[in-house]
């Protein structure tokens, strides 16, 4: 491996020099099991310089431990195309580096765990079309200044992931709200950090019952009157390579209160709420069972919920649909998208 000072300066280069023999041995060992290019490795380490400088400024006694964790992560992720000059998603790598540099206290506290957990979370968010990894990284940077330890920070990260569009994490996120300090859970949900515990409990209880509620409005008591609203189209044609999920027009059903979708090749779960919608593969194609709750779609595109009714022209030719008590999902045989209608105070 080329001498680090030839391309690096500061605490990162100094740490690499101190552990030169050990780091060279790790590179040799890594090359036995996969392709590791020295130039790409050095470029990757150079990109982590800001992380090391921030950690060094926070706790210089932890610099070597932080560099060791980053070095191992680079060796693991580089051959997989996750980091480095040839990274498949350079935006994920950029967010990872920016978050680690913005959270030096967490990095210094448990370098290996934080380095791995943040990359795993960002990759998971990036893999879910519609989720917002950059929002998650921004919230986590803020939470890192308030969290007492890494454990609390990462638990609050589950809440932040839900808020950033990971709809299928909703139940776990609401459970996590009870396991972290109120200040962290409230900030993760976009509330004031000084939110009272009883208000936070109310928000969590109502959010469990109503997936289309917005926590800040719940906390303030300003939740708008719900109506039957169009809340989005999800899915799209997979062949275009732009985040589409289905190879053929899908059909939709309901199983155990969860939307199930099939495109003839694979089956998926569809989760949707105020913060976003996620479509996750669950196995080979299986005809989804029909099921519905209080929302019903008529032949003329009329969606009914109790005494409420609204006609959606685009749903007159729906070929399959399913609903819960507050959300209706409908599909057509001439489209790769699924239309979502909800009993909500928001939407069109």
Summed up, the helix count is 14
N- and C-termini, Cα separation: 58 Å
**Oligomerization category of the chains in this entry:** single chain
Mean pLDDT: 94
What share of residues is helical?
A: 40-55%
Shape: flat
Give the SSE string. HHHHHHHHHHHHHHEEEEEEEEEEE
Radius of gyration: 24 Å
Poorly predicted segments = 1-6
Biggest beta sheet attributes: 4 strands, antiparallel
Strand content: 15-25%
Helices and strands, with pairings:
Blueprint: H1 11-18, H2 20-33, H3 38-47, H4 49-58, H5 63-77, H6 90-102, H7 104-109, H8 111-127, H9 133-144, H10 150-163, H11 170-176, H12 182-188, H13 197-209, H14 215-220, E1 227-235, E2 251-255, E3 258-262, E4 266-273, E5 276-284, E6 295-297, E7 302-305, E8 308-311, E9 320-323, E10 327-331, E11 337-344
Antiparallel strand pairs: 1-11, 2-3, 3-4, 4-5, 6-7, 7-8, 9-10, 10-11
């Amino acid at each position: 491996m080329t001498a680090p000072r030839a391309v690096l300066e500061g605490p990162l280069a100094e740490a690499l020099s101190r552990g030169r023999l050990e780091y060279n041995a790790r590179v040799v060992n890594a090359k036995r099991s996969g392709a590791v290019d020295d130039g790409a490795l050095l470029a990757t380490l150079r990109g982590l310089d800001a992380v090391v400088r921030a950690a060094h400024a926070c706790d210089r006694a932890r610099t070597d431990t932080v560099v060791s964790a980053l070095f191992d992560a680079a060796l693991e992720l580089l051959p997989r195309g996750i980091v480095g000059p040839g990274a498949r998603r350079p935006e994920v790598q950029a967010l990872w580096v920016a978050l680690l540099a913005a959270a030096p206290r967490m990095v210094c506290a448990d370098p290996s765990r934080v380095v791995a957990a943040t990359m795993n979370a960002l990759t998971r968010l990036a893999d879910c079309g519609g989720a917002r990894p950059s929002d998650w990284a921004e919230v986590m940077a803020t939470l890192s200044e308030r969290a007492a330890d890494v454990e609390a920070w990462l638990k609050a990260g589950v809440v932040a992931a839900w808020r950033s569009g990971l709809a299928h994490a909703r139940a776990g996120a609401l459970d996590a709200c009870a396991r972290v300090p109120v200040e962290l859970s409230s900030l993760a949900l976009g509330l004031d950090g000084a939110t009272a515990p009883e208000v936070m409990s109310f928000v969590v209880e109502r959010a469990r019952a109503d997936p289309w509620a917005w926590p800040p409005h719940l906390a303030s008591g300003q939740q708008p009157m719900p109506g039957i609203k169009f809340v989005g189209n999800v899915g799209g044609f997979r062949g275009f390579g732009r985040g589409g999920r289905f190879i053929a027009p899908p059909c939709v059903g309901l199983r155990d209160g969860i939307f199930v979708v099939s495109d003839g090749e694979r089956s998926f779960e569809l989760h949707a709420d105020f913060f976003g919608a996620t479509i996750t593969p669950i196995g080979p194609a299986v005809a989804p069972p029909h099921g519905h709750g209080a929302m019903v779609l008529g032949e003329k595109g009329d969606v009914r919920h109790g005494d409420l009714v609204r006609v959606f022209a685009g749903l007159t030719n729906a070929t399959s649909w399913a609903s819960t008590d507050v959300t209706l999902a409908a599909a057509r045989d001439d489209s790769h998208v699924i239309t979502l209608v909800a009993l909500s105070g928001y939407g069109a």
